[in-house]
Design goal:
elongated, Cro/C1-type_HTH, Transcriptional regulator with XRE-family HTH domain, Lambda_DNA-bd_dom_sf, alpha/beta, about 45% helix, 434 Repressor (Amino-terminal Domain), 2 domains, 11 helices, DUF5753, Endonuclease, Chain A, about 15% strand, six-stranded mixed β-sheet
Length: about 280
Amino acid sequence: MESTGVVVRKMAPTIRLRRLAGELRKLRIGAGLKIEDVVKQTQIDQSSIYRIERALTRPQRRTLTALLNLYGVPAERQATLLNWLKESNQQGWFRVYEPYLPEQYQALIAFEYEAESLQTYESMFVPGLLQTEAYARALIKGVVPAIDEDDLQRRVEVRMQRQSVLQRPIPMQLWALVDEAAIRRVVGGSDVMQEQMRHLLEAAARPHIRLQVVPFGAGAHPGMPGSFIRLDFADQFDAPMIYTDSMAGDALFRPGFDGDIETWEKIQLCRHRRSTPMTCVSV
């Protein structure tokens, strides 16, 4: 069979499906039931329940209704959860790019699209949400020298489209901490960097964007191993999510916990340590 040259990857579940999965697990535990108990009382396959509660599969409406009835969920709350199921099949603008994107990156984009606020630390690059197109293109080409033009174009398009969260009527609140190394590293030549620095200054002037530099003088700190992103959501049912990407290229997307807040605060405090004056950008 002739190869199409396209690497088909598993699609990441939508935020609504993850939200539904987490709520079903909480409801089951709240009802004092083990998965084995649910199997006996509903005849739903054990592996199906396991996959539903981890957002690995989308339940059918009748399956969800059976579970909600078993857990004693009131009608009004059932209606909300059934609506989550309906919405869980909706994808954002990035759906067309999904066959080309790693699952963890898909998940980041999906949650980013829904987030009310985002905190990010970058040790090596300007954060993706604040990159110019020219900088993004030069950066991707530099990091992946063998990339073909079609894949390069797709990656640049995705990165630019991600920035739409900062232009919507109620924009995402962005707090970006950037290591001084990312600001001083010349990516794509002087013209590209000058444009990128102007873009950062303009972005920092917007009321919903907070941009700060962690100086060289800060020394070693918890953010040095790589990227760190925390996303928070308006809905009370959505716990914060954390995306980390190490220098070794290991991306991880997971629920947030108290230790992540401590890590962010430690990085944030580092920016107050004295350093030589910044000559290429002031924010």
